[in-house]
Amino acid sequence: MPNPIADPLVEGLDRELDTRLVQVEATPEGIATVTLNRPLRRNAMNAELIAALTEAFETLQGAEGVRAVFVRGAGGI
């Protein structure tokens, strides 16, 4: 059975890196993780990232079974 939270993929491409700006993953228990994916820019907000986040949260809002949403940034120290 497909996961209704993770199935709608968030499209938003960073022109500089050609990668998905926001990644959405979810567990069968309804825990979603939204990852900002601009590690070379320290996940700084720009218009494209804000649009991708908006789309991700609208997708999660409409998904059944979402119990919690965590937001994190890609990359590390």
Report on this model:
- The protein has a single domain, classed as GMP Synthetase, Chain A, domain 3.
- The protein is built from one helix and three strands; from the N terminus they run ββαβ.
- The protein has one helix at residues 47-62, and strands spanning 22-26, 31-36, 68-73.
- The chain has a three-stranded mixed beta sheet, covered by helices on one side.
- Mean pLDDT is 80; it is low at 6-18.
The portion of residues forming beta strands comes to: 15-25%
Content-based structural category: alpha+beta
CATH fold description: GMP Synthetase, Chain A, domain 3
CATH architecture: 2-Layer Sandwich
Q: How many runs of DSSP E, i.e. beta strands?
A: 3
Low confidence ranges:
6-18
The 3D shape can be described as: flat
CATH secondary-structure class: Alpha Beta
Helical stretch count? 1
Please, what is the average pLDDT? 80
Helix content: 10-25%
In total, the number of domains comes to 1
Distance between the termini: 37 Å
Main-sheet strand order equals 1-2-3
In sequence order, what are the helices and strands, one letter per element? EEHE
Compile the SSE list and pairings.
Layout: E1 22-26, E2 31-36, H1 47-62, E3 68-73
Parallel strand pairs: 2-3
Antiparallel strand pairs: 1-2
What are the defining features of this structure?
GMP Synthetase, Chain A, domain 3, flat, 1 helix, alpha+beta, 77 residues
